[in-house]
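Class, study these two lines:
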Amino acid sequence: MCGRYQFTAEQCEEIRQIADAIQRKYGADAWSPGEVRPANRAPVLLDDAGGPVPKLMKWGYQLPGTLVINARAETATEKPLFRDSVRNRRCLIPSTGFYEWDSQKRKYLFTLPREDALYMAGLYDRRGNEDCYCILTTSPNASMRPVHDRMPLILTGEQRHRWLADDDAAARILTVASPELMRTSAEAQISLW
């Protein structure tokens, strides 16, 4: 499961460009970079003929009594809630890392080695009057397994473009293993919330 992630524009030029595009499109007060939590609005990337375009959406599919923030990559094509989104509404969730807690409730930040940006595969839909997204998760790899039994489906390089634009490739991408990650303790980080 992925329950929080980080979108910090200061440390990454790619992320800064996305943040700048969002601010130009929606205004400076439309959202705040930092730690992203369920039900927050945050940038996602959608396919456009000219390449990926950023859009601000709410994290989570709102259903009666619950907010669905993750979808299992292994079963998303079978589940009525996600099936059409897998075919027609795929997105990328840009971040600078994601958080997970171990069984002792210690918080860790996971990032890509030698990369400042981390892109998670996602789906989006319109629920009520709001566009929203969820993060696809998969079985953990060796770097994640000591902490949690699920992890986001992380896309690198050409996978990102194919996920957004190529329907046939998207089905195959659902089964790829995520890259190995760096894990650092987030316990010392100060949160204002």
Notes: The chain has one domain: 4-185. Residues 4-185 form a domain with the hypothetical protein yedk fold fold (CATH 3.90.1680.10). The radius of gyration is 16 Å. The CA atoms of residues 107 and 124 lie 27 Å apart.
